[in-house]
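Because discrete structure vocabularies remain unfamiliar, it helps to consider an illustrative case, giving the amino acid sequence and backbone structure tokens:
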Amino acid sequence: MATYPPRGFTINAMICDTASSPEGKLYIHGGGWNLLTTNIFPFIQPRIAVAGVISVPYTETNKGHVLELRLEDEDGKRIPLGSTVTAPDGTAARAPEGIQAQFTLGRPPDLQAGDAQSLPIAINLDRVRFESPSAYSFVITIGGEEITRLPFRVAAFPGVVLASGGPGATA
């Protein structure tokens, strides 16, 4: 007899405009898209979010775990998750190329043996910069193991002239 969910972590996730997860519930605004279009590159998206619900297996409760979110281009190169920030002393700090979060989900006394628990997540990123039209993916890992990949594309509106003369440039 098969059990559900599978023994490992699973996640139902999507890209959206913004998200929050108060009181164990997930609130999504502008969710489920996979295309951004713009008339200029480099392009800075004011806000982009990843929202989802992680299914934590019974055997993985009461243990510490590390979740990582990263953004990759179509060649697997990591993209900074935001813009360069200038510190008060004038030095520039590049945005991180990944976000890590530690979590431990307890095992309540009324949880039946073998039952998974749900853990909603909402990660909002501001001022993510895209240098050129391309395919991108948000990658979510737990304990270094890829759990899901959320692909999307950033494209130029038809007829847009790219300053670099790169892919998609028109004359």
